[in-house]
Amino acid sequence: MNFTEHIPILVIALPLFAAFLTPLMGKISRKAPRYFATAVFVIVAFLVVLLANMVYSRGTEPIIYTLGSQNDTIFRIVLEIDAFSIFMALIMAIVSLAVSIYSWAFVDKYSGQDKFYTLLLLVAVGSYGMVLTGDMFNLFVFFEISSIALCGLVAFRTERGESFEAAFKYMAYSTISGLLLLFAVGIFYSQYGVLNIAKIAEGVGSGPFNELNKIALGLLVTVFALKAGSVPFHMTTPDAYSEAPGGVAALYVAASQAGLYALFRTCFTIYRPVITTETIGWVVIILGVLSMFVGVTMALVQKDIKRLMAYHAISQTGYMLLGVGVGIAVLGNPAALDAYGKMAMEGGIFHIINHAMYKGLLFLTAAAIFYRVGTRNLNEMRGLAHTMKFTTIFFMIGALSIAGIPPMNGFSSKLMIYESVYQFSPILSAIAMLVSVLTLASFVKVFYSAFMGPKNEKVDAKEVPMSMLVGMAILTGVIIVFSLFPGLVVDTIIKPAVEALLHGWPIAGGM
Amino acid sequence: MIGNAPYIVVGFIIFLGLYTAIFKRNLIKIVMGITLVESGVNLFLITLGYRTGGGAPIFTQATNMHMVLPTPQALTLTSIVIGVATTALMLSFIVMIYKHYKSIDAKDVRRLKG
Amino acid sequence: MRKSVAFGGLLLVFAFLLIAAVNLHGFGDPTNTEMDDYFIHNGQRQTGANNIVTSVVFDYRGYDTLGEATVLFTAVSGVLIALRKEGGEE
Amino acid sequence: MFFGIDTGSGVWNAVMLLLFLAIAILIAFLLRSMGIRGHRKRVHAGEPFYFGNEVPESAYIKASNVYWGFIKAMEKYYKPVMAEHTGNVNDYMAWLVLTMAGILLVIFFM
Amino acid sequence: MMSKIVRSMTRPLYPFIILFGAYLVVHGHLTPGGGFQGGAVAASAIALLVVAYGGTRMFRKGTLTAMESSGLIVFISLAMVGMATVFFYNFLANGGPIFGEAIFYGPNPGYFNTAGVIPLMNMAVGLEVIGGLGVIIIALGKKAFEVME
Questions:
Q1: ipTM value for the complex
Q2: What are the residue ranges spanned by the domains of chain E?
Q3: Stretch A168-193: mean pLDDT
Q4: Cβ <8 Å between C57 and E139
Q5: Fewest C-beta in 10 Å: which of A406, A415, A473, D30?
Q6: How high does pLDDT run on average in chain E?
Q7: How far apart are CA A305 and CA A399, in angstroms?
């Protein structure tokens, strides 16, 4: 048995197996699940890196792994892994590792730790499954796994009614969106009789852009924009982010970006040949601009620290939609695509990984503050910098990065978006800059009210435990590397991802 | 046109489900609406696979070798189980919401807003 | 006012569902059936199961079934988390 | 490029920026070292001056009041937007269906 | 807690419901049915017990969760054993030590000893579904009674 051949499926099957085993681990001892789950996350991160190495050595040709048998590939479920898929998997690997270490201390005082770590593993499985699959129905199944596991985690703190409210709202939303996705899958199945994404793409490309495909595209854009938390569907996102316990909010950021992955996969891989006008690009751009603006202005008036950051997550999602949306808009125009479309897409995709890192870090610091102060209300906290020194430093790095202050990685991706979008439409670029300014303003507010000022004698705000610091330090380290060597990152992982998106997928196997 | 009546029925069921989810204030009714949408989509998948005069795709003592498509049935099976799972989860949330809020009216369950 | 706008949107979605219904392949006459015919004709030989639906569920699309079982498992974990003993602190 | 990125119309290099920053700090220290050594601060210099009144216990501004002026000026925008986040599941569902209808409409008649 | 009639009818009836569920599970590769359907039928017996007795005297939650986890572990292990070729490879079909009898295209009376890993997977999934749905029913019922009081 050749081990390297099976790495694609092991990335999904291993955490899945571990998730089934974790409840039994909980029977052994109370602390067994956390060490077990973290060990699994380490192994999976290692496997993802190995897989990434394999993918990047193959250029734009994706790795195809058939499940069930080797003979009739086209009728089986396949995993298709190109540079963009593995890019998303890398994000999930880093964030899930940091979150699982961070949660050691955070969930220590709650019961039900074995189930907490089970669901943590399942969220990771859902995201890996979504980004590595090459089958439309399989995408739906893993979409549901990811949403349901996240809902279970949001409802973790049983002493609060709000957590159930948030979980219910998010669940209702994501269930409806999952069903619409299934409807779109049904439309594809009825026309082409297959569920393989590459085969569907061939079918869509071979005929005219008919009514059914238009309706399916509309449904898919809606569903995946909802999963990513774009503006008209963002209502439940702040609730769920703010009620999710501790580091789960950071995982949530990474998991919702699987929705972005699916959206871009839909537009580029399935609908690539029929997108000749700018309309679809403009739909994505308008969703993005709305997300950016509404997200940041709503964040400015929040006084709950996690809710504020959740609105910023929505606002940053807008940048990615804007960047890649410009790429979609100029798909039918090769000259413009080469001139600035690719750069816009690179900026948008670079922003995905930057966002997962710094927003993850910010959510972790917010949870650290909650852990010590016991409140999320900014009005009731002050002077934390006196005692929580490391947390302050981590927060500053995250805040500078999200605001796009020059040496940080947030600046590199935003610069790429500004400069390329300017050539497409100067107004959009100006809005993006304005949003960046407002982002800085609201983080100044958080920094001022939580960390500055006289020491609050009422709360015992000492530094958080070691495991939480380690969790934050992992993400901080990634941010610093990305800040110092943006060119290296763009050349090694971003450009192959863009090339892979534009290249499309070949059809696996014969009949 | 009239041959596609099953699809129109499917559309109507989905419409009814969405209507229930938007206009009914009782949380359990909202869950029922979502279940209705789910039934519509399941029915849609099943109808896609029907062949006129086809029998069940099972060879044990089969007499009719003209069979309906098996894949949509498998997909529907998956979708039903997922539906059961989501419904159970939502109902358990509603039980807990009732415990904390003493109400399952959507107008009262809105501490998180703004 | 709000309600009528929402109802208008709902009607629009219904209209699109009807457009989809009219444009779909005729009921009882699926157009592309290579995949399913392949399953029907080779299912018995390849998997040994008489019930083709079962062979699709557990062999050709077994990975989906694994995901489906995982969804149920996830939901059970979620229900147990949501309904576990009160208090949070042990 | 290894360190920086080239956006076509601009170049960005973080290491270079940090290098320049280090040089600037070095120059600043040089300038500082040329200053008068014997200078002493006056009493109360740098403390806030509360005109007329007594100095309060804590002059710390709460988070909700930080951007009061901005929010007041933008009230026309904020009022409807804040009112739209009702917290009611029905409204959220209505938004979902409405936006879906809009997206379908745009894509269908493009 | 329902009336005496319901309770005294439930007691002899529920083993048969579980038996019918088990029949659906083990014949999943020959007749309509399979792991999910049979498991759901068997779980309905648990639901009947919960409704009739209003409590959880017959099944403990611990047993059911163990059933669920072990069913899933068997399922994914079967899939992983196939990894000598590929994940989910049906390694027992057409010549394995159990369920290995080969059949060919066309109707037949239905031989039990066929289909490779499919019957095993059916049983694993059946176990999982009984456990999972049973736990959901019991937990939900218990909590609902508690909240209503």
A1: 0.91
A2: 4-103+118-148
A3: 90
A4: no
A5: D30
A6: 82
A7: 13
